[in-house]
Structure formats: C-alpha cells, structure tokens
Design goal:
By secondary structure, this protein is an alpha+beta fold. About 45% of the residues lie in helices and about 20% in strands. The protein is globular.
Length: about 325
C-alpha cells in the first residue's frame, strides 16, 4: 500500500537521525517530516485505504523517538496528519447520517473544530503556515456546506471566510490560491501538493509542562465536602501568553471545569497559581486530572464554527495532565 520509491528512504532517514545530534539537527528532522508528508499526500491522491494512510502517524512517531527531545515540527506534522485523517473519515461516513447531521456525525465535527483551533493557535511560524491553518478551516466548512443537508453552514459563511483569506493574503503579500480567488471549489489536496514543503524549521509550539503537582494515584487527599482542596500549580511554559492560560480539572464522569484565577505575577515561561477543587461528598475516593489550557475566541467571520462547537471560546490543552486522587467526605 506504500509507494515503493518512498519506502527505502524512510529507514535511511531514521538511521541518519540516530547517528547525529538530533537535538540540534533540525534540518534533518524537517526534511524527514516533509518526505513523510509527501508520502502521505501520494497515498491520499491514489485513494489508498485509510489504514495505509494511518501508518503515516507511526512514521512521524519514529522520527520523534529518534530525537533527544520533542520538536515542534514533529508535533505540527502529527496534528496536520490527524486533521486530514479526520476529514477523510468524515467523508467516508454513512451518507444518510452525514446529510441529516446525525448526532454521531456532529460529535466528530466538534472534535475537528477543536483540532483546527489547536493547529491555528498552538503552532506559529511564517505567514504561509498561518495561511495553511486558515485554508484547513475553509476546506472544512466548505465540506460541511456541500455534504450536510441540514444547513449548519450557509453560503454567507463561505463568503465571509473567503474574504478573510483574501484580506490575509493581501496584508501578508502572499499569493492567493487560484480556487479561492476565482470563488471555485477549493481542493485542499491539490493545494498541499503544490507546496514545496509543509514543515519548516521556524515553527514554534505553544506548550506547558506541569512541574508540580506530580501525578500520584496512591495518596488520597481527603477533605470535608463543604470545603475545597487547594491544588498549587507550577509549570514551565513556552510561547504562551500568561493572561490566556487557565487550569482544566476533569472530574470522574468526564465533567470538566476550567478555572482561571487572577495571576499575581506575569512571569516569562513560567506559570504559578492555585485552584480549588471539590464538590458534593463522594462515597469513595476518585481520580481527577489537571492540565493547563489556553483559550481561543472565534473571530467575527467564524460564527458558523461557534454554532458547530457550541460555545464562543475553546479551551485548548497545552500540557499533559496530572492525576490526583481526592475524597470529598461527608461533613460530620
């Protein structure tokens, strides 16, 4: 299922990475990722089975494992492929369910909106990279407009987004994709195949690493249910705006709460704050997950995405979560 002329090059790429100082050899990583993405686009163009295309993520993970640390480029390539795979899977769903906006379909649509916002907010670089993020969103709403009979996307939504892309290209002195300029159907695969490269060395990644607390599923933190338990958060951050950060707490049963306490000090590349967790009394201890998130507010031309996602602000996870065991016990 893989193109023969590309397969031999992948082990060679991994060998080169393992034998070099990959923590600084960003050019090797970038060229390797671009090779893998070209392979992926070839599979897409040939109409390969979704399982064959999914192997692209495994190849990106191999590049990541060869490296001494996680590079923004590997995270960027991985999320790009994930989004494209989600779009292809959406296209292959039952047509009747798709047309009627079935609940299962709309759940998948909401997940894609989240990943599109994550792609746009958490990865920065050249204007060309920002344009790709906009084009992914445009292709997505165009697809929904064409395939869902229950009109969640209107022709006006398409027009507003097209105008935003034209303005962005004009302001950034970028070439406008022909199909956008001529108001024709935008073929995302055709556009991607015309790009010399999709991953560049200058990509930055908004992320955070929680230093404290550390995951501990053995120790039970007990407290009376009429009170709260204080969790002091310390984290290293990179390429984030401190005022946009918040803490997400996921309780048992998948209930999520986002807390955004006022920051006393705005520190560069460091986040420190305290959140209070708790609730009604529990019969047994339970696990909570704590992570750092950053916000994305939909722009004026993205109101259709607000309708699809359900709220006007998306909280995007930028850290791994830590697990804590708590037990709000009945008050005596």
């Amino acid at each position: 299922s893989l193109f023969p002329e590309l397969v031999p090059q992948l082990p060679q790429v991994h060998k080169i990475l393992k034998s070099s100082d990959v923590s600084t050899d960003i050019d090797s990583i970038t060229s390797s990722l671009n090779l893998i993405l070209k392979q992926f686009l070839s599979l897409c163009k040939s109409g390969a089975h979704i399982a064959a295309m999914t192997k692209t993520l495994e190849n990106i993970e191999k590049i990541q494992k060869c490296s001494a640390r996680v590079h923004p480029q590997t995270k960027y390539a991985s999320l790009l492929v994930k989004i494209l795979l989600q779009l292809f899977k959406l296209r292959n769903l039952d047509r009747k369910r798709m047309a009627n906006g079935h609940q299962r379909v709309m759940t998948k649509v909401r997940d894609i909106v989240y990943d599109l916002c994550l792609f746009q907010v958490c990865f920065k670089g050249s204007d060309q990279i920002l344009l790709l993020a906009k084009l992914l969103k445009f292709y997505f709403i165009q697809f929904l407009y064409e395939h869902i009979a229950v009109k969640v996307i209107t022709e006006k939504d398409i027009s507003l987004y097209r105008e935003d892309i034209l303005k962005f290209c004009s302001d950034s002195n970028l070439a406008v994709p022909t199909q956008i300029q001529e108001e024709r159907h935008f073929n995302l695969l055709t556009y991607l195949n015309t790009q010399e490269y999709l991953v560049s060395p200058d990509i930055t990644h908004s992320r955070a690493t929680i230093l404290s607390p550390q995951s501990n599923t053995e120790r039970i933190n007990e407290f009376p249910s009429h009170l709260s338990y204080a969790v002091e958060i310390e984290a290293e951050t990179s390429h984030t705006e401190p005022q946009n950060l918040a803490v997400k707490v996921r309780y048992p049963g998948f209930r999520e709460v986002v807390c955004q306490p006022v920051l006393q000090d705005l520190l560069q590349d460091y986040y420190q704050n305290t959140v209070f967790v708790g609730g009604v009394s529990w019969s047994d201890p339970g696990l909570i997950e704590v992570s750092l998130v950053t916000d994305y507010g939909f722009e004026e031309h993205e109101q259709c995405l607000v309708e699809l996602y359900g709220v006007e602000k998306v909280w995007l996870e930028i850290s791994e979560s830590v697990q804590l065991k708590i037990h709000p016990r009945p008050s005596k």
